[in-house]
Amino acid sequence: MRFNPASFRTILFTFLTLLVCSAFSLAQAGPKYDTATESKFKGTIEDLKLPPKGSEKQIAYLTIKSGTDTFEIYLCPKSYIDDMGVSFAKGDEIAFTGSKVKQGDADMVLAREVVKGTDTLVLRDDKGNPVWNWKH
Known about the structure:
By secondary structure, the protein is α+β, with helices and mostly antiparallel strands. It has a domain at 35-122: CATH 2.40.50.140. It has 2 helices and 6 strands, in the order αβββαβββ. β2 (59-66) and β3 form a beta hairpin. The longest helix has 25 residues, at 5-29.
């Protein structure tokens, strides 16, 4: 069998393309909602992590303090929060239902439903699938 540099380049290019595509799709997937770890929580908003203006399709996070525990809540794209007419501020008391998951070494909660006063923001269906439209 003879070494063919053109074939080698084609195989290498195909391999690298598949590797990059796989890494990209894994990065886009994010953490998965796990109904087995779903719980109800209450807490006070310590911090809001909203995407900058012009990046409203990126995910909004809240840092919540509940007793002595502090954790991050993964909500939804900021554009969805805006569309629903809900706002959050530091010091707000909220109750929420969510799934505790691992993202790398960090623990986080994927919110399914957030209640603030008389407002309820539904983010995911009963199976944990997002209800917002990513293309919105």
